[in-house]
């Protein structure tokens, strides 16, 4: 399988506008791999995009993507969906205000995501209902398993109470990639589908030291219940028996530069930190 990490950042792009911190200043000067856009990955084998962060338009251009057949959402938080208007921009025929014939993009939708999807609104009503009416997208709901051109896709739900987040597992040619970029606590490391990945793509969790404003998370901080720490993430990757780990969704407030992540990765075998435009072969 061939993947491109289109965006390796988290809730805020790096450089964050107006921010003069060390990490943002360097990123503004040097660009990628120091600069990071929001979280998105492209699976070339089936021309599938996962998530549409705010900067997705320029990310697709920069990534040299020329064909988009399928789209998946891990979940519907703003940092993963707010660039969804590219669906309209890519397919719209201004002469009819509908999609060009044959250009409709397949949105693969786990059944449980459907209700929440239609809760996303613009002044025209439910955003994705509008996309569907104009044929910008074709919604293909599925329960947990799909096969597309020799690539098996499994959706593994993570119940976050307020919403269900999906981990996506891709299997092809005897290889397994698990994509779990955001809000995956409690991580279902006992489930066979996510075990034994050749590559686990996951957020590293929060860092205990050297984050912005010299902040340290107190024992009762909310993030200790909603996220894993970096050390906990390493442990769960080990429990899930992942061969290689690639960290994504790297937050600006973690206060770490591309070089800092390189140095950190060198201390642990089998881990890497992603950067925008990173090509991954599995
Ligand atoms: Zn900054
Ligand atoms: Zn996120």
Protein described:
The protein is an alpha/beta fold and 282 residues long. The protein is globular. The chain has helices spanning 22-30, 56-62, 78-81, 86-91, 114-117, 127-133, 223-226, 230-239, 258-265, and strands at residues 2-7, 40-43, 48-50, 70-72, 92-93, 98-99, 105-110, 121-122, 125-126, 137-142, 145-148, 151-159, 164-172, 175-180, 199-202, 245-247, 271-273, 278-281. The protein has one domain (2-281): 4-Layer Sandwich (Metallo-beta-lactamase, Chain A). Helices cover 21% and strands 28% of the residues. The structure holds zinc ion (2 copies). The site of one zinc ion (ZN) has 6 residues, from helix 1. One zinc ion is lined by residues 16, 19, 21, 23-24, 252.
What small molecules accompany the polymer chains?
zinc ion
Percent range for β-strand residues: 25-35%
Principal-axis shape? globular
- Helix percentage range: 10-25%
The ordered string of helix (H) and strand (E) elements is EHEEHEHHEEEHEEHEEEEEEHHEHEE
CATH topology: Metallo-beta-lactamase, Chain A
> How many structural domains?
1
Total number of strands: 18
If helices are DSSP runs of H or I spanning 4 or more residues, what is the number of helices? 9
Largest sheet: 7 strands, mixed
Query: Stretches where pLDDT falls below 50 for ≥5 residues?
Result: none
Q: Can you give the mean pLDDT?
A: 96
How many angstroms separate the termini?
5 Å
Spell out the CATH superfamily: Ribonuclease Z/Hydroxyacylglutathione hydrolase-like
Given this structure, which CATH class is correct? Alpha Beta
């Amino acid at each position: 399988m061939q993947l491109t990490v289109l965006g390796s950042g988290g809730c805020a792009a790096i450089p964050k506008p107006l921010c003069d911190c060390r990490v943002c200043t360097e990123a503004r000067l040097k660009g990628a791999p120091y600069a990071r856009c929001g979280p998105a990955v492209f699976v070339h084998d089936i021309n599938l995009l996962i998530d549409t962060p705010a900067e997705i338009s320029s990310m697709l251009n920069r990534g040299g993507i020329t064909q988009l057949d399928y789209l998946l959402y891990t979940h519907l938080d703003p940092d993963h969906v707010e660039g969804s208007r590219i669906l309209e921009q890519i397919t719209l025929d201004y002469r009819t205000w509908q999609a060009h014939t044959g250009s409709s993009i397949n949105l693969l939708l786990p059944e449980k995501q459907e209700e929440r999807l239609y809760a996303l609104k613009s002044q025209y009503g439910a955003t994705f209902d509008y996309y569907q009416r104009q044929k910008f997208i074709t919604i293909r709901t599925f329960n947990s398993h799909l096969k597309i051109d020799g690539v098996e896709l499994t959706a593994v739900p993570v119940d976050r109470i307020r919403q269900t987040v999906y981990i996506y597992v891709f299997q092809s040619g005897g290889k397994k990639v698990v994509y779990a970029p955001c809000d995956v606590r409690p991580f279902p490391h006992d489930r066979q589908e996510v075990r034994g990945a050749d590559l686990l793509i996951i957020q590293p969790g929060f860092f205990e030291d050297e984050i912005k404003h010299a902040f340290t998370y107190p024992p009762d901080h909310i993030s200790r219940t909603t996220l894993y720490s970096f050390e906990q993430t390493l442990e769960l990757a080990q429990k899930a028996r992942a061969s290689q780990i690639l960290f994504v969704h790297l937050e600006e407030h973690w206060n770490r530069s591309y070089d800092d992540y390189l140095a950190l990765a060198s201390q642990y075998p089998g881990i890497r930190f992603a950067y925008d435009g990173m090509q991954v072969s599995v």
